[in-house]
Design goal:
The chain is α+β, with helices and mostly antiparallel strands. The chain has 9 helices and 14 strands.
Length: 358
């Protein structure tokens, strides 16, 4: 029976793989069993954020590229700490079940003109379903987080397109790709129908969203690297996962409820002991389109110097770091169709607090 292992590794710079190399040397990480690496780099998170590709290049020197999904998200604004999450599948005949299950799928490349269209939605939905099957997750409700690295447009890709692209603005292409990928997750998890997804105005109709999608666009690929995280009776081990949806950028109550469900006392900030038991927190952040949070005006959308997504990462990162007492948490900006407008999904992975916790 498979068992999931997850290692959280601090990084000193985008190409810092020394922590991963140390775990490999110590026998704690088997490169041949690594399924995915999810991480935060200290770039700007925009089209020209080459820290993502820089980090992937360094990782590929340590891990075999075939069979490993590298999902690097740029932007550690505020107090967020750059880090890597290394997800590994081992075999274990004992341990409690159900437990955290992991699978990853790399889809075929799509054409530049398919970014932000129903064609991209379909490719992602098929990839998520395949990853669910590989993980032994039969029910959509047992999926708690789907992390995707999706493509974006560049000037060269627009020029090479065989048909008209959805936009000629490379920055806007990131939002279209993230949104279409999120809708693909929503279709795969039966949150919306394929017909409904095909008619959504991507990035505009904020009423249609997935409660478990987290998508990040990058220049380093034209396909999709999909990582599905959920609970499965086919897996054993001491890791469990839960998810919440923040209604807005300061809505920590649903996150606190998941922590309680996972066995944390959660009276105020987590204690040092509980902080060590929390293996990972992954979340989406978005400034929303209204320009307000609970009726109060914010200026994230009006700042011409700093992108609104960068503000949102720092703001939501601070709110969640204050709750869990850690800054090495994965906060990704740009939450088109990923949770309600201005909010976003959150996943928490922890070691079991007591026998029988599921």
């Amino acid at each position: 029976m498979p068992v999931a292992r997850l290692h959280r590794i601090a990084t000193a710079r985008p190409d810092d793989v020394s922590g991963l190399q140390a775990l490999i040397a110590a026998g704690q990480v088997d490169p041949d069993r690594v399924l995915a690496v999810i991480g935060k780099t200290e770039g700007n998170g925009c089209v020209n954020d080459f820290t993502r590709a820089f980090a992937v290049q360094a990782l590929k020197h340590v891990l075999p590229a075939d069979g490993v999904a590298f999902v690097l998200s740029g932007g550690t604004e505020g107090g967020l700490s750059p880090h890597l999450l290394v997800l590994q599948r081992d075999e274990n005949s004992s341990g409690e079940s159900p437990a955290l299950a992991i699978a990853q799928v790399v889809t075929r490349d799509i054409a530049p003109e398919d970014i932000g269209t129903s064609a991209q939605i379909k490719v992602v939905a098929e990839g998520v379903r395949l990853a669910m099957a590989q993980a032994g997750i039969a029910r959509p409700e047992d999926v708690h987080f789907v992390q995707i690295k999706c493509p974006l447009l560049t000037a060269a890709r627009i020029a090479a397109a065989k048909g008209p692209c959805q936009t000629k603005d490379t920055l806007k292409s990131m939002a279209l790709s993230r949104g279409a990928s999120a809708l693909g997750v929503a279709v795969a998890l039966a949150e919306i129908s394929p017909d409904q997804a095909a008619t959504v105005a991507i990035g505009i109709n904020t009423s249609v969203w997935s409660s478990r999608a987290s998508t990040s666009a990058g220049i380093e690929l034209m396909g999709h690297e999909i990582v599905v995280l959920g609970m499965s009776a086919d897996w054993s081990g001491d890791l469990v996962i839960g998810h919440a949806v923040m209604a807005d950028a300061i809505d920590i109550t649903p996150v606190r409820k998941v922590l309680i469900d996972l066995g944390f006392a959660c009276q105020g900030q987590l204690t040092p002991a509980d902080q060590s038991r929390l293996v990972a927190l992954l979340a989406k952040a978005d400034p929303g389109q209204t320009g307000h949070i609970r009726g109060q005006r914010h200026t994230m959308l009006d700042d011409s110097d700093i992108a609104a997504t960068r503000h949102a990462r720092a703001f939501v990162g601070g709110a969640l770091a204050g709750l869990v007492g850690r800054t090495d948490i994965y906060i990704s900006g740009g939450a088109e169709h990923q949770g309600p407008d201005g909010g976003g999904p959150v996943a928490l992975i922890a070691r079991r607090a007591a026998k029988g916790l599921t």
